[in-house]
Design brief:
alpha/beta, 24 strands, about 20% helix, about 30% strand, globular
Length: about 425
């Protein structure tokens, strides 16, 4: 189900690129407010959430993890699955669950979900609508999907004891390949349901040897022939012969302006604006985001966001303080049930073979405090997703030691974040505060 491309051959990698409360999108409100404001407005954020229909292991997640999730005025995660009225009977098209999943996540402390990702539209219009209803029935907020483009771009709101928090969710997506983006309504014609896109176009120039390999691969796959001037439209990008291998990406000015405008508008009435950016590139093993992701995240802060979170990469990435805001480029995974089939997200649970080959996924939880919309401090807590006798691989427990923090420390400190490492966690403040 992951929509995107990877151009190998040593060139580039570009892939596509959630008390009591109630909220719908656009101007509807959701009331959280379980935590006071003596230390500022607090946000807890996690990485991707992807479960199969079997929720039994999730019920065994330790109380320590749940307590961490309940430590904020608002708790945000990326919901990379569809919630259906009867998930057991649904045709397998992607990761899916039901009302019991929403209730479980609500009881853990989640209040808002970013949903602009490449799994959101797996079950089409009906799946989007059913997910909306189940979340709303469980008094949960989501942003990043909608019945049309305007609805998918609308902020979702959480009303806390420290003021309103707005969540805006968007995904970096390749225009030529991704079927998930919502489309606008035009005249009397209804728009197309889908996700809030930040479209990117890619132009790749390659040397003669690489160009020959790309031509052969394209021909083997039955792709279209190149134009008369050698331009090849394949794999979701435009490929030209050149002197060296390089890829230039261009962000849609329309999407760029619309998303930044939504952030600015939300900030007028929000105590804090949280933005989620769904992005995979340059790959799951990269600790650094694409330059275009960095640029857009910083622009989002300058437009009025206090916190920007990168979702979808399945990897840990650097943390940055920028002009009073906080950017977490990648929190990895929170739950990714590794018993789910990798390429379809279909349930493939075999109790006799609970182990999954390959390295365990990475994940961490961000806890951050804000005053007047500005980031004051943050903490990253590592997750152990390797599994054990109680939990299958991909289900979280708090890590006692966490190498991932050391791996992103240098990248983060180069971006203005001062780390104080502890066992399994790190306290983070702006570098100028630490001096």
């Amino acid at each position: 189900m992951r929509t995107g491309i990877v151009i190998g051959l040593g060139i580039a990698a570009l892939a596509v690129a959630g008390g009591t409360f109630f909220v719908l999108r656009g101007g509807n409100l959701n009331t959280a407010g379980l935590r006071g404001c003596s230390n500022g407005l607090s946000v807890v954020a996690t990485g991707d959430i992807m479960m199969g229909t079997d929720t039994a292991p999730a019920a065994r997640v330790a109380d320590q993890t749940r307590t961490l999730l309940k430590g904020g005025n608002v708790t945000v995660g990326s919901l990379a699955m569809t919630l259906l009225a009867d998930p057991e009977k649904a045709e397998v098209k992607g990761p899916r669950g039901g009302a019991q999943h929403a209730a479980l996540l609500r009881d853990w402390g989640f209040s808002a979900f970013a949903r602009a990702n490449d799994y959101a539209n797996a079950f089409g219009r009906d799946g989007l609508a059913e997910t909306d209803k189940i979340l709303q029935d469980n008094k949960l907020v989501s942003a990043g999907t909608g019945t049309d483009l305007a609805n998918s771009r609308a902020a979702a709101w959480v009303d806390t004891s420290c003021g309103k928090v707005a969540l805006i969710s968007a995904a970096i997506t390749i225009r030529e390949m991704d079927p998930n983006p919502a489309l606008p309504a035009r005249g009397g014609i209804a728009g197309r349901p889908g996700i809030n896109p930040l479209h990117v176009s890619a132009l790749t120039r390659v040397d003669a040897e690489t160009y020959a390999k790309v031509l052969k691969s394209n021909a083997d796959l039955g792709g279209p022939p190149p134009d008369a001037d050698g331009t090849l439209h394949a794999f979701g990008v435009t490929i030209l012969p050149g002197d060296r291998n390089e890829t230039t990406t261009t962000v849609s000015p329309t999407d760029h302006a619309a998303i930044l405008a939504a952030i600015t508008e939300a900030r007028k009435t929000a105590a804090l604006v949280v933005v989620s950016i769904g992005n995979y590139a340059p790959g799951d093993m990269s600790y650094e985001p694409l330059p275009l992701t960095e640029t857009f995240a910083r622009e989002a802060i300058e437009a009025g966001a206090g916190l920007v979170i990168g979702h979808g990469s399945h990897s840990l990435r650097a943390v940055e303080f920028h002009k009073g805001g906080l950017i977490a480029y990648g929190l990895g995974d929170f739950i990714i049930d590794r018993r789910i089939s990798a390429h379809l997200g279909a349930d493939a649970v075999d109790p006799s073979q609970p182990d999954v080959e390959g390295p365990a996924p990475d994940g961490m939880v961000l806890s951050a405090s804000f005053r007047d919309g500005r980031a004051v401090s943050a903490k990253l807590t590592g997750l152990d997703l390797a599994g054990d006798k109680d939990l299958p691989p991909g289900f979280p427990r708090l890590a006692t030691t966490f190498q991932g923090l050391a791996q992103i420390q240098g990248l983060s400190e180069a971006r203005g974040a001062k780390f104080t490492l502890q066992q399994g966690s790190a306290d983070i403040v702006p570098a100028e505060t630490a001096q």
